[in-house]
């Protein structure tokens, strides 16, 4: 077990599947104390039971500020501190702007941007009090590049990068670390949230041909956490070797 992960209290949003679930599995194997949040409580409970040990499952919709606060409060009540917040929850209902699927735009803004801000809002006071902590915010390759149909999604993921960089500069006095992780095509349920059927077909084929397993992301999370406390890994951008975009 890694000395710098074992015993750490790590809160993960979007933990019921995909990147969050893979991260929970790897971090549990390294001795972390986990607080898992997601909307699908049944899946969370099953994962927590499977992992065993110090794992707490809390129903949480990151688009609701009170539920994010309750997730962080549950971690503090159970373990007395919070060492890492992995702001992972996200969705990707891609579509051309001309379709004017404004409800999808609103959902992406609520989850991908506000969800991250609500996580920072909930955890920052405790981390300041501790004079330690680590925010890991999930962006995307799409936060670095934009293509037709990804306009709003790319905007939300670029916003995550901007928020994270601003946070990095503001929390130095409190010994808090910040990491942005921008994955490329990783095999998760994210592609299932694509709205437009034509885009969905293209995305599904790209994932089928190119996507790498979710544990690739989990290893990036572990790498960032494992570094000595005086090392702040600020951004990780990774893709499948075969991915051009």
How far apart lie the N and C ends?
Answer: 35 Å
Number of helices: 7
Determine the structural class based on helices, strands and strand pairing.
alpha/beta
CATH architecture: 3-Layer(aba) Sandwich
What is the subunit organization of this protein?
single chain
Q: How many domain modules?
A: 1
Helicity, as a percent range: 40-55%
Series of H and E elements: EHEHEHEHEHEHHE
Bin the strand percentage: 15-25%
For the record, the CATH class is Alpha Beta
Kindly report the spatial arrangement of strands forming the biggest sheet. 3-2-1-4-5-6-7
Mean pLDDT, to the nearest integer, reads 95
Describe this entry's structure for a reader:
With 245 residues, this protein is of the alpha/beta class. The protein has a single domain (9-234), classed as NAD(P)-binding Rossmann-like Domain (Rossmann fold, 3-Layer(aba) Sandwich), CATH 3.40.50. 46% of the residues lie in helices and 16% in strands. The chain has helices spanning 18-29, 41-51, 65-79, 102-130, 151-170, 197-210, 215-226; strands spanning 9-13, 33-38, 55-59, 84-87, 133-138, 176-183, 235-238. A 7-stranded parallel beta sheet has the order 3-2-1-4-5-6-7, with helices on both faces. α1 (18-29) links the parallel β1 and β2 (33-38). It starts with 8 loop residues before the first strand and ends in a 7-residue tail after the last strand. The model has no long low-confidence stretch (mean pLDDT 95).
